[in-house]
């Protein structure tokens, strides 16, 4: 958002060109902050308010989790603008919050020394007094404010007030006098000021901060974490996707669906191209199970029973890959996993397919009528139940035989 851009620019402008200040005269205070940071896992909701010299305000809210783990050092989790990040060492990972359809994990490996520097590459820089420490050079450096000097401290009941300066101006830091938890920071910037308010929250289990990657696509583009598009709905017109066949022959989905006379449905069995052979085998088992079960059911129906029509189908396996160039050198490997007797196609449109269905199913069946209108979407992790679920979608149209589409 514009607000976040303004905040990022404002905080970035606070960073000094050089050392910008003297060593802290209250290393004891900073040492206590560091000791508190290392003592146990911490989490807080951080509210930032930036006011520029013209009086215009922008705000942001983050959830920050941090812990020192023996043998691993500092690990940091941040929730910001609908994305959850986890950083350890120089590596940052991210995922969207609260959408179980998101199959994408962002991962960036940097040469930076420490998670806060790594996070600075993907997040706006903000003051982090809770992580102030005296460096080997005797300086205290904040990622947004630069070199921090503590001029004096004063006790005010349960609050310890630290007054000091940075290269950009004065600041006032309020801490819990017993635990050294940060309450507020009010700091002058080059073109305004920033006020940080921190509220402790339950940090939860540190091991739960990391991001699950099994069965998900790992990408190095932050844009891939953009808000997930709405789920595929029954009744919508499915896009006429461009597909690749073995040998890199291009074909449109509508071409594959036209004129084979096998019935109203094209059943797309959508998988990830890089999935294990067992996923390809599951797709093959579903395809053969559908054919056998539908044929057996049709054989027992009367000549005029509408279900004879609605059980007609063909199956196409659609394997998703990040980009078509990734197929070079791997096409033979994928074809070697393909189930016999089932057409295998390749597609790069995650955002129109797998990213729009519930995560956790290795195979997703999308039923399309002749006009590419979606008749149903079925997540499949077992061949027998998957076949029965797809058949039940087909049977439902026999019970309510109005067409799924009036055309395009």
Description:
The protein has 408 residues and is an alpha+beta fold. It contains 8 helices and 20 strands. The protein has helices spanning 2-12, 27-39, 115-119, 253-257, 277-299, 307-310, 331-337, 383-399; strands spanning 42-52, 57-69, 73-80, 83-88, 91-96, 104-109, 140-142, 146-156, 159-166, 169-176, 182-189, 192-200, 217-219, 242-245, 249-252, 265-272, 313-320, 343-347, 363-368, 374-380. The strands form 3 sheets. It has a 13-stranded mixed β-sheet with strand order 7-8-9-10-11-12-1-2-3-4-5-6-13. The chain has a 5-stranded mixed β-sheet with strand order 18-17-16-19-20, covered by helices on one side. Helix 5 (277-299) packs across helix 8. The longest helix has 23 residues, at 277-299. The radius of gyration is 29 Å and the shape is elongated. The protein starts with a helix and ends in a 9-residue tail after the last helix.
